[in-house]
Design brief:
- The chain has helices spanning about 1-25, 40-60, 65-85, 95-115, 120-140.
- It has a single domain (about 30-140), classed as Cytochrome c/b562 (Four Helix Bundle (Hemerythrin (Met), subunit A), Up-down Bundle).
- The termini are far apart.
- The chain is elongated, with a radius of gyration of 21 Å.
- The protein contains five helices and no strands.
Length: about 140
């Protein structure tokens, strides 16, 4: 009886160790389960082409005219949509990924609102908030080169 208890305890401890290790170290998600786009392509094809120009446009005095503000609004809307895509199709491996996607979603929503109201300072603050999601996610999931 005592021998069975020891074996049972050993198996239980081993199970907890395995579960604890996998929960503490989430694996990068190269792509969703059914969709073709790898996460790195979403970053390269959607995030980069929209985030870089936003940064440039929001420097200093912000957008110069209605067309530039409309472009900022468009880029913010696309990045907001990306925040949903990053959570769909079983892409989300852990809470830190989910939190980063939510930061992207909330910041881009505020940026879109500020762009429609043509409020430079609000847009700059929203952009700064939104890009906080990048470092939070990349520190855990972006492959080291």
């Amino acid at each position: 009886m005592r021998k069975m208890f020891v074996y049972g305890l050993a198996l239980t401890l081993a199970a907890f160790l395995v579960m604890g290790t996998s929960a503490d170290t989430p694996k990068p998600v190269p792509k969703g389960k059914t969709r073709a786009a790898e996460t790195k392509y979403l970053m390269r094809g959607i995030m980069g082409p929209n985030c870089g120009p936003l940064k440039d446009e929001l420097k200093d005095k912000g957008p110069a005219d209605d067309k530039a503000w409309d472009t900022v609004a468009s880029q913010a809307a696309v990045l907001n949509e990306l925040s949903y895509v990053l959570m769909e199709d079983d892409r989300c491996p852990a809470k830190d990924w989910e939190a980063a996607a939510m930061t992207l979603r909330e910041g881009s929503s505020k940026l879109l609102e500020a762009a429609k109201a043509k409020k430079t300072e609000d847009a700059q603050a929203a952009f700064k908030s939104m890009t906080g999601s990048c470092g939070a996610c990349h520190s855990v999931y972006k492959p080291k080169k």
